[in-house]
Amino acid sequence: MRVLHFMNSPLPIDQLVSGGNQLNSSGGWITALLSRMLKETDFAFACVAFGNVKEVQVSHDDRIDYFVVPGGWVGRSADHALRVCRDLVSQWRPDLIHIHGTEAAYGLLTARSMVKCPAVISLQGLLGPYSEWYRYFGNNSFMDIVRMHRWLEVLAMRGHWIGFLRIRKLAKREREIIAGNRFFLGRTAWDRAYIRALNPSAQYFHGGELLREAFWQDQWNIRQSRRHRIVFTNAGGYPRKGTETLLDAVKLLQPHFPDIQVTIAGGISRRSGYGRYVRSRIAELGKAAIELGQLNAEEMLKELINSHVFVSPSFIDNSPNAVCEAQLVGMPVISTYTGGVPSLIDDGQTGLFVPTGDTPMLAARLQEVFEDDSLAVQLGSQAREVAVRRHDPNAIVHEVVTAYKEVLGRPT
Fold it and tell me: What pTM, to 2 d.p., does this model score?
């Protein structure tokens, strides 16, 4: 079988050897899947991604052809990139196209009948619900949103206000992609509900997500963790991640836990208005907040092992990999009840829920975990049991291959 993968960002081929462990940005789950499928199948693969190149870049390694296509996500550059992708499909002649996500324009290839090859789309996030005002900006006030922007960004048509308008435009394109395609791979009740609502005739397959190999290699132990240390990731990207809610909760708890600490993984821009805004909020906590920067899988694993609890305060998410990784390591997780996260957490059993944007409730949940070791251990161990089954590599490869064969009408 020949399978052509379209993905949102270029991934170095050499990361297939490490299962994506050295990546310190998004896309590690795609690398983990391809790495495993190379071992478990005899398929031939090609990968295509938009990139900052002037002409199509081609490379090859063993059974994978790799193409980086010039072009952007919107406007004329996206239209040109789509035509290049159409030609690549014609030249490479896959049996099946696997499109990772509805964020980029790739799904239009089949929605607009630019190619005849059957396609299956893996769902990542969903731009429609992500683009709602109250989710995109969270519970930030209008003045907070103003403070997230530098005047130079406004003049240059950048910053999160422009980002909000852009994602609204991309969400419109996403609706065309979902309505115009037939086969989808998802992993939560939430993404399945949205597909059914936007395309009742679509065929939905459950397909789990592989995690990077590093997170299978060690387990959290409360006796080895630093007390009252919270770990959080992806603070500097979007207001919807709920960074401000977590920082405010830490501030509430400081009088009760003078040694409380929140470590923040992920890049926070020193130039953007939002990056500066987040840094100003972090500075209010003094030594209680530590920026970790971008971390690869091994570095992130170390931070999880060294922390007391993982928190995901997002206003909207489908199935955040960071939550899954923390569960697989076996540590307690506190998350907002939003999007597809209820498919990952059973409240009180494999994690704790809080309402989105609810600072006092988040502080209360953190205090529960800090003061009750048996609760923390129980949440972590039960989460690991579920995560081991949910992210079993052999089972996930079987799900994906079965979906491929059903799309192609081949016997499973």
Answer: 0.90
